[in-house]
Design goal:
heterodimer; A: D-Maltodextrin-Binding Protein, domain 2; ten-stranded mixed sheet; 14 helices; 12 strands; 43% helix; B: 13 helices; 0% strand
Chain lengths: 348, 283
């Protein structure tokens, strides 16, 4: 073999290209790629969903590639014809963006064994909701002796300098703003009342966290005593010995659908369908409802139990009555303007 | 090698691989970014609308100004704390230098996320600083240190410190120790000797250190968002918000380009200072 500069270069470039674009060499043979969320979601999916999927498919290959919703959208958008992700997981806001940009394949509802069992609000044709996220009040029981009952308690002068919130970059922050706007006569279409309420909250604010994860740190450091918080995130903190409690406010906890979608043009359509079926199945949802995961199920065949039944709702009927679902199509219309307004006005 | 002229030590062809890497991984994405930033909203006509949107908006200009100013504060603090440290290192006996270098480099050896979380623990209400102050009876209630400008500057200064100290050490080593003695013999006091002899001779190191710290501080997305909090907005966070949460790539690209130009402007000021200082140091 004549090992000259040119042949070396060609080989190197080819090898490099194969690494950068693995699709060249094995377009159809790559494992199913599931972009779950980072942190507790990844743990739960690795422990419960992946084994269920393997069992259902005779050990098909699957890779978890955890990332934020918005990053999933960016990655798929960058390679629409041959997306690097087969199954994406989204909060309600990004889900509508992804569907709006044509990144999702309609879910083959007629083929699905479980779709019809989902509670009506979880039945989304472009990608069903296998789980809910629930946002309520989080507080430190060591410093807050009377548990809060309502979102309005955040404005209680007793919590001067003790309240934490997040900015609107997160689903939680935006959902919270919409909810307090509603309390003061606003709606998804008009959150001015919510901004006015935030303005009045300033004396109580100890911190505006950049993301919900940072709120957890602030509880651990005693920086804040009360904040809006995600039910699952709080359970994880609690399990690690941080003194936090979750309470559903009397106005109703805010529920976000977490939807799961087959990516358009994804090479593994059939496996993607099987993974989503597994996520919708009562077996997986029941297991994920149990400790330590405590993920709220959406399949009506799953009987609510444990901490979820105690703190949130004892049945799906009660859940649909007690939870507040927000209209994210409306929210997305103006979200950019709200973020802009929040950037400018919420300084303290 | 199969052909071609023999390669001499300073053959420009040796730079080709690096140039290729730069071209593919740096220049090309930058050109794409520039093209993206010229797009109108919702795929409208090409133009400088995104730039006008940023430059015509006092709030956005404030974010840019705040970011550049943050860098100045961090750099000055690093210089103030880093210079004596570098001086001590150079004067230390050889046996002490090893452990000292380890301490200086330690921040580089731990992940920036870990370091930043350490600062959250230090600055929190029940953190080391507040516990000490309250223990000494200097304050009755915990001070708010986390999510404040001062807290952020201190945290960034620690995170970026090695980038300041290493060039300083390098340039201090190059200064002939006899020069200090000479200036003392000629009647210069300690301060005069420092300002007239040591400082000018180490200016290149100071400028290199300042440049690295400055660039590091203004782009430190993780530390800015975790120690600064959600209501303090700097350019990296602004860019992320527009690109990621709002998926407004053209505006985000424009922010990136403006930030790049602003940073290049600052860098060229440093470079000019560096050139001047070389003249000054040799004069």
């Amino acid at each position: 073999m004549n090992l000259n500069r040119r042949s070396l270069m060609t080989t190197a470039l080819t090898l490099g290209a194969m690494r950068v674009y693995p699709g060249i060499s094995y377009a159809q043979a790559r494992p199913l790629v599931f972009a779950t969320f980072t942190g507790s979601w990844e743990e739960a999916h690795k422990a419960v969903l992946v084994p269920a999927f393997r069992k259902a498919t005779g050990n098909a290959q699957i890779v978890l590639d955890p990332m934020l919703s918005v990053d999933q959208i960016a990655k798929i958008n960058a390679a629409k014809a041959n997306p690097p992700i087969d199954v994406m997981l989204h909060d309600p806001g990004p889900a509508l963006v992804a569907v709006g940009q044509g990144l999702a394949e309609p879910y083959p509802v007629e083929k699905s064994a479980y779709y019809k069992d989902l509670i009506p609000v979880a039945q989304e044709k472009m990608g069903p909701a296998p789980f809910f996220q629930v946002v309520g009040l989080t507080y430190n029981p060591e410093t807050v002796k009377t548990p809060p009952k309502s979102w309005a308690d955040l404005w209680n002068p007793a919590f001067k300098g003790r309240v934490g919130i997040t900015n609107l970059n997160s689903t939680l922050g935006t959902g919270f703003l919409v909810e307090i706007a509603r309390m003061h006569g606003g709606s998804e279409a008009n959150v001015d009342a919510g901004f006015a309420a935030l303005d009045k909250l300033k004396p109580n604010l100890a911190a505006v966290a950049a993301n919900p994860g940072a709120l957890a740190t602030l509880f651990q450091q005693g920086q804040i005593d009360i904040s809006p918080g995600n039910f699952n995130a709080i359970q994880i903190l609690k399990a690690r010995g941080v003194p936090v409690e979750f309470v559903a406010p009397k106005e109703g906890a805010i529920a976000f659908k977490t939807t799961i979608h087959i990516v358009k043009n994804a090479p593994n359509q059939e496996l993607a369908f099987k993974l989503i079926e597994a996520a919708l199945s009562p077996e997986v949802q029941t297991e994920l409802m149990n400790p330590p995961y405590l993920i709220v199920p959406t399949n009506s065949k799953v009987k609510m139990a444990g901490e979820i039944a105690k703190v949130l709702a004892a049945s799906h009927a009660e859940m649909e009555k007690k939870f507040v679902f927000q209209d994210w199509a409306k929210i997305n219309e103006q979200r950019a303007a709200w973020i802009d307004k929040f950037n400018r006005e919420i300084k303290f | 090698m199969a052909g071609g002229a023999p390669i001499s030590q300073n053959d420009p062809r040796l730079a080709w691989p690096l140039a290729l890497v730069f071209l593919v991984l740096f220049v090309a994405p930058l050109a794409m970014l520039l093209a993206l930033s010229l797009q109108g909203p919702q795929g409208g006509a090409l133009g400088v609308g995104q730039y006008a949107r940023f430059l015509g908006d006092l709030f956005s200009l404030g974010v840019l100004g705040g970011t550049l100013w943050l860098g100045v504060k961090v750099t000055l603090l690093c210089l103030l704390l880093g210079y004596p440290l570098a001086w001590l290192y150079v004067r230390a006996p050889a046996g002490l230098r090893g452990p000292m270098m380890l301490v200086i480099l330690l921040p580089l050896l731990t992940s920036v996320v870990v370091r930043t979380f350490a600062w959250i623990v230090i600055l929190g209400r029940q953190g080391i600083v507040n516990e000490t102050l309250m223990g000494l009876g200097l304050t009755a209630t915990p001070l708010k240190l986390l999510y404040t400008d001062g807290g952020l500057v201190v945290a960034l200064a620690q995170v970026q410190m090695p980038l300041m100290v290493l060039p300083l050490i390098n340039s201090l080593f190059r200064v002939d120790p006899n020069l200090a003695d000479a200036s003392a013999i000629l009647g210069a006091g300690a301060w005069r000797g420092f300002f007239r002899v040591l400082l000018p001779l180490t200016l290149p190191g100071i400028i290199a250190g300042c440049l690295l710290t400055y660039a590091g501080a203004i782009t430190a997305f993780i530390t800015q968002s975790l120690v600064g909090g959600g209501q303090m907005l700097f350019m990296p966070g602004y860019l992320y918000q527009q690109a990621s949460t709002l998926q407004d790539w053209p505006f985000a690209a424009a922010i990136a380009m403006i930030f790049l130009v602003a940073v290049l402007a600052v860098v060229s000021v440093f470079n000019t200072l560096g050139r001047l200082s070389r003249g000054y140091a040799q004069a």
